Amino acid sequence: MQPLRVALTDTLAYWTVVDDDWRPVPAADAYLRHLRLGADRAEGTTRSYASDLACYLSWCQSTGRDLLAGVKALGSFVTMLKTTPVTRAGAGQGKVRSAGRINHVLAAVREFYKHAVAEHTLDASVLTLLYEVGDDRHLPAELRPEGSGLRYRARPRHVQRSRRTARPVPVHHDEVEALLRTSRCWRDRFLLVILWFCGLRVGEVLGLRRSDLHLVPSAALLGCSMPGPHLHVVARDNPNGARAKSGERSVPVRSEVLACYDRYLTEREACSAARSCDFVLVNIAHAPLGHPMSSDTVRKWLAVTSRRAGLDRVITPHMFRHATATELLARGASIDVVKELLGHASIRSTEMYLHSDIDAQRAAVDRLGPLDFGSEEVQP
Question: From CA 35, how far away is CA 49, in angstroms rounded?
């Protein structure tokens, strides 16, 4: 079993699971098609889930289990995940899976079975093998919802105990300035400043069309009521694979973004192949000329530029988003404002940026003041 990309149109594709004869596995294909088309999830999401399901279905096949027998022996599958090194190419090749990674695989398996039950491919009783039902009788009264009676909830039976998620690693201000000084064209500088000031995901940046940029004091003539220079993040299926993860929103922009974009347009105009492309960020110096940039191109360019700038680490696009959130919260922006700017679906995603650095922690400890040790003299 292995994942395979299925292109439906020039801009719409999803990933499925195929067997050794390159035939789609019906239950997995139905779920992944629903995930992409019915639930409108990103192509990258189906790729991740297809990889996890291929792992599970391969294990079922190699151990002679059908879907029902597989879920009954899910503990054995977890044991395999914990003890067998990863064989596919990638950063984890040759290593056993972490607890967090195993939980991700198990989540994909549970969603796969839930869809199979909804499609009547499997009986609903299979869900009792995946979930156990609990109630809120032992919760403190403050945590119980309003109303009388017990509230029941289902929780997964198979969950690995994992460490707390590490804090996001942001790019630093001096690193961004070093990248700007090293950049060789205004398109690259424009990309850096829009990542830094707007906190967009790389897919959102690369999916921007020129019509999404309202870089004027008033865009009323364009039918837009939002005042001031801003851009619109719009969910689309794009030929470069870029996609807005969390729907549509408007993001204000600073004067630095306008200035860099103006200079970039001059460079872009010199590339005749780019003139007819509505995408904001296009290839102007390498093939295919005039085509929208891809996320792989951006990551490789950032890696090269990081080394050229003499940085101690390779900067990634998502580190800019972390920096934007951290800087905004540190400068007094309310968490609900940051949530809307970043396009988080839940405020819990924004809360992970509410942390202080070591200097702030040390200053807080120093403010506790000294203690009186009496006649004993203690040197600080």
Answer: 9
Contact 144, 332 (CB under 8 A): no
Collapsed DSSP state (helix, strand, coil) of residue 214: strand
* CATH T-level assignment (fold) for domain 173-341: hpI Integrase; Chain A (1.10.443)
Q: Are 231 and 208 in contact (CB under 8 A)?
A: yes
Helices and strands of the chain, counted as H and E runs: 14, 7
End-to-end Cα spacing for the chain: 65
Q: Where are the domains of the chain?
A: 2-156, 173-341
Cα–Cα dist 114/130, whole Å: 9
Can you tell me the distance from the alpha carbon of 242 to that of 298, in angstroms, rounded to the nearest whole number? Answer: 12
The string of pLDDT tens digits covering residues 119-176 is 999 999 999 999 987 766 666 665 556 655 666 677 898 988 877 666 668 899 999 9
Helices 99-118 and 26-33 sit at what angle, rounded to 10 degrees? 90
Residue ranges in 284-342 assigned as alpha helix (H): 295-308, 317-330, 335-342
